[in-house]
Amino acid sequence: MAGVDWTSLDLRTLGPLGLLRELERCARSFLPDWIVGVSDTQYGCLAKRLARITGARLAIDAYDNYEAYMPWNLPLHALWQRSIRTADLVTAAGPQLAQRMQLHRVKGHPVEIIPMAADPEFIPMDKQVCRLTLSLPPEVPLVGYVGSWAKNRGTDMLIDAFRRARAIRPDLRLVLSGRPPKDVLDEPGVIATGYIPDAQLPLLINSLDIACVVTAETSFGRYSYPAKLCEAMASGVPVVATATEPVRWMLDGRREHLVSVGDAAAYAKCILELLAVPRAEYGPRVTWAMQAQRLNQLLTSVDRQNR
User: The pTM is what?
Assistant: First the structure.
């Protein structure tokens, strides 16, 4: 990528302390204007440390409620909250998460929202060509779920909904990627693809008649903005999604795509209704370029305010 330099460090070779020393050495030699902590709790904490020793401004970005991970690790969460409190700029993937993170901001710039955006490769494609490439059945209706399989995310409801829909449409098939449990793979009508290379994920999404998005009312789900929902929307694939507040916000309240959390009967009904929709319209697409411009504007604005 033009203008971007990557450095990879091996934790197994350097060890935790060696890795930290090497990162500090790199940061001191580079002397950045900003250090941005992204992706997970520990990176926010590390970014705060590097910003302090280099005198750089600190930005923290989050796309999940990281405090839902390892809820027992209170010291780590305390460090994360301190990073949010002291950062010059904090950004979140949506308003629900931004509101939660704002609780840790005593003063300074309020938490800003930079929504998720699908990779540029996710665009509408010819469904039959995609199915042929992935050796998926060409003529039967396919619904699919791409993501982690966990009971606390409500995925058991998806199987219940699929059974109900298939009782009415026996030709219906459920495409699952990754590694679901054996009892799920043994379900009649399930097609398992295993792990799909990243480069083929746009093909998989575009192979589907319906993309299924399942979230739950948990400390994680109430602040979750599924990337797979962004990817299906960017591809123009009809979506059936559980209506947690973040998902409702991402879909701009489009009721034809939303189902109450845990309601398998309503989920099945929505699948059957949307099978008649070849492509879905979700409004203007949010792109990486748009989000990069937004982030640049925020960094520049905070810089000016603090001069």
Answer: 0.91
